[in-house]
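User: Lens fiber membrane intrinsic protein, Characodon lateralis:
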Amino acid sequence: GLWRYCVPGKCMTHTDSIAYWDATRAFMILSLLACFIGIVIGIMAFIHYSSFDGFDKTFAAGILFFLSSFFVLLAMAVYTGVTVNYYGKRYGSWRFSWSYIMGWVAVVLTFFSGIFYMCAYRMHECPRNSNSR
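Assistant: Predicted structure for Lens fiber membrane intrinsic protein:
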């Protein structure tokens, strides 16, 4: 995991400060922040919250979800690449756990959330553009 690693029989915290651990943690935290802000803006868009009428909230939520997906993808790529080379060679029985799979599921879900918000943006904009002619 990001905070500790387990081999058969025991789990230990990461005591070494390797840059890829810090990079993976930072990308995951940035992804979490972008996703949280995207959720808040998305909810404000669908309850017709009148503040910040100068920008389209569905478009902003979609961009934030795409950004979150990109950060999770970067974190998982860094984690996968370095971890396989580091632990895979040292421990023969080492494997990824459920949290690793959840990280890749998060990439897919945040990406599709961005697509759905962009679809909502397009559906909201199309009637507005056709009435202006």
